[in-house]
Amino acid sequence: MNNPKPKYYLTTPIYYANSRPHVGSAYTTIVCDVIARYKRMCGFDVAYLTGTDEHGVNIERAAEKLGISPADLVDRNQQIFRDLWKLLGISYTDFVRTTEPRHAVAVQNLVRRTQRVSPDAIFKRKYEGRYCIYDNLYVSDTPEPADCQICGRPAELISEENYFFRLSAYQEKLLQLYKDQPDFVQPDFRLNEVKSFVESGLKDLSISRKTIKWGIPWPGDPEHVFYVWYDALTSYMSGIGFVDGEKKDSDRFKRFWPADVHMIGKEIIRFHAVYWPAFLMAAFPDKKSSDYMPGRIQAHGWLLFEQEKMSKSKGNVAYAEPIVKALGNDALRYYLLREVVFGQDGNFSKDALITRYNADLANGLGNLASRVLAMVQQNLDGVVPVLDSVPDPGLMGFGDEVSTSPVLVRAKYEKFDFAGALSDIWNLVARVDLFLAERRPWVQPNNENEKKSRGVILYNALQALYLITPMAHPVIPDATQKIWEQLGQPGKLADVRIDQLQWGGLKPGTRIGKPEGVFPRADKKETLERIEAMENEIRNTGSTQPAAPSADSAPTAPIIAAIGAVAAPVTPAKIGIEDFAKVELRAGIVKSAERIQGADKLLKLLVDIGDEVRQVLAGIALSYAPEDLVGRKVVIVTNLAPRKMRGLESNGMLLAASVGPDGKPVLCTFAEDVPAGAKVK
Ligand code: ME8
User: Using CA atoms, how far apart are residues 198 and 205, in angstroms rounded to an integer?
Assistant: First the structure.
């Protein structure tokens, strides 16, 4: 049967399954969940796809490091992603793994189709160039050394015969697409960046690899596997039932394709706004653009941790699970959407998260709901009053003011201005608080008129709550569902039409439920400690990657992990001497040491390493007093890329053993005399 609802299809990037998700990956997924929930509440039939990107050299190498097979690694990690999405209440409808057979078939069929309908689009030639294995990016088409534009690390040399996609032939067509679909890339300033990139000339793109085994075999030439981005992008189709672009495609694919929005972080815009539309143009030259071209590529900014992008490869990540376990799912969702201006970079701080939680959720909405509901229970027998006279003009003004709000809030959701929508909703919470403070319904009435007036005041406050609750639902689904039930409303709040909300929708005579607090206040210190303890547990045991350093436990933490204080899930694979030789170790002498304000565990050291004095930040402040370190001989890793913490650069790492159950760092030193700068091998 045909579904009369309009369709809406949105996707997250499919995340690399080389490690567990962090707050950055959770951010995109939560944003998409808010959109999906909002659209459903506007009457759309929503398909929401997420998944895991499970091929490529970074997966191969991550597995090798752990001494397990790539298949085992991705199996484990994709489950961690799914578990987290469950914990976060993500209402995705489809999940795709690129190692699924249905996906491999789709990728092979898409390329076969392309070769058939656009015979010039794909050709074979020798490739020599530099490739970044972390970002899966062809960095330069010449063999000279080059650094990756995304992560800045040196790219690897590759030289092999590859299949190429003739991207150069799509330059004009892409520019035409940006003209015909002016919203194709959002925000606008990103579209300008994309246009300049395309205008500057497009090079043909290698789309197969011979040196990698962990990938989808090229049809008819199994020595080659697909370039991970051709593979990964196709998941947006395979994930909802694309098979061949012909008769075998599922009804679901036919209903939902093309996507309305591909939501991504800004660093992968080129793949989505240039390569992906070009791949699609080549695969469907016989179709109208509106039948296959995504509606929009929406790029958001990064969550920053200590001013740097939070990323798995840098190890400066925060995890979502401990926050959800300590404060609930709504707390993280609310904080991320309220604090980060969508589209821009935003800082992530647990401290700010707890402050927001207490101010806006516990003291704000939660407190308002429980106060109003308790007063209705106590004074009105738990029933929404029937008004038998026209309320006084002051009260009608309040209703008018509140009832215009849903239209404004919806306009902001439509523009993906989540911080704006939430700010409007919370202004309304403050407005109701003020209204109650002015009208004081808790004062015992002296006569019948005053009693009626109290009923009218509470009636107004209840109607306001009745509007606020669904408006906040896409962002904080758990608490709003509870408040909804406490307002005596049956069924799921998710089924309420947000575009049909009306002042007065809470019917007089409705019996309200038992008021129960939805956001208990959190003690900041204690909550932070709980979160950090859980984070440490994840770093030490729960992760399939080596322990990641926390904000102020680095830089000794990775070494502590390597020494074996943590219970690694698997024994690390053996390395050759050539791998060890990559690490430059030298003897150093500490010249000065001082504490860093606001970082309990970090010390700032100046270390003489012979030919220079290096600034090094070390997570040893709980074990060493700064004055005890001056003059001390230490071992330092001198060729580690510099890293910023608390706004200061650390240019090296001290070696330390990790002792006891708490992993107390004990610095490595020398029993005999050594000059500063002596090599340690
Ligand atoms: O790029 N702040 O996967 P990925 C905000 N597999 N968002 C962040 C973030 C941060 N600090 N860190 C990650 C890939 N993200 C490819 C995608 S799609 C066909 C293939 C989010 O695991 C953001 O959405 O590196 C970013 O684009 C994505 O995770 C990258 O995830």
Answer: 13
Other beta carbons less than 10 A from residue 147's beta carbon: 14
The string of DSSP letters for 306-331 reads TTEE--TTTT----HHHHHHHH-HHH
- Residue 650's DSSP bridge partners are 643
Instruction: Please report, to the nearest 10 degrees, the dihedral formed by the alpha carbons of residues 325, 331, 336, 338 taken in order.
Output: -170
CA distance 620 to 91: 43
pLDDT at 36 over 90: yes
Count of CB atoms within 10 A of residue 507's CB? Answer: 11
- What pLDDT is recorded for position 555? 27
Task: Report whether residue 233 contacts ligand 1, using a CB cutoff of 6 Å.
Answer: yes
- Between residues 543 and 434, which one has the greater pLDDT? 434
DSSP symbols for 492-514:
-GGGS-GGG--TT-S-TTPBP--
Over residues 248-276, mean pLDDT: 97
Q: What is the pLDDT of residues 482-511, one digit of tens each?
A: 999 999 999 999 999 999 999 889 999 999
Structure tokens at 378: 């106590």
Residue ID of nearest Cα to ligand 1 atom 8: 24
The percentage of the chain sitting over the pLDDT mark of 90, rounded to a whole number, equals: 67
Are the C-beta atoms of 398 and 462 separated by less than 8 Å?
Answer: no
Task: Compute the Cα dihedral for 122, 252, 102, 216 and give only its sign.
Answer: positive
Q: What are the CA-CA distances from residue 259 to residues 71, 191, 230 (Å)?
A: 29, 18, 17
Residue nearest atom 7 in ligand 1 by C-alpha distance:
24
Round to whole Å and give the CA distance between 590 and 513: 66
SS3 assignment, position 665: strand
pTM beyond 0.85: the answer is no
262 lines ligand 1 (CB under 6 A): no
Q: Residue 91 contacts by C-beta under 8 Å, 6 or more apart in sequence?
A: 33, 36, 37, 40, 48
Residue 172 has pLDDT above 70, yes or no: yes
Closest by Cα among 564, 640, 655, 554 to 604: 554
Ligand 1 pocket residue status of 265, Cβ below 6 Å = yes
Atom of ligand 1 nearest to the CA of 276: 19
Closest CA to 643 of 668, 607, 616: 616
- Beta-strand (E) ranges in 507-640? 585-596, 599-608, 613-618, 633-637
Torsion region of 663: left, alpha or beta (phi above 0 gives left; psi -120 to 50 gives alpha):
left
Place of tokens 């004990």: 666
Q: Which atom of ligand 1 is nearest to the CA of 312?
A: 12
Phi first, then psi: give them for residue 665, nearest 5 degrees. -75, 135
What span, in angstroms and rounded, lies between the C-alpha atoms of 203 and 167? 6
Strand 303-305, strand 308-309: pairing: antiparallel
Q: Which of 476, 455, 443, 454 is nearest to 365 (CA)?
A: 476
Among 228-232, 265-269, 598-602, 672-676, the least confident range: 598-602
Distance CA 615, CA 606 (A): 5
In this structure, are residues 313 and 77 in contact, taking their beta carbons and an 8 Å threshold? no
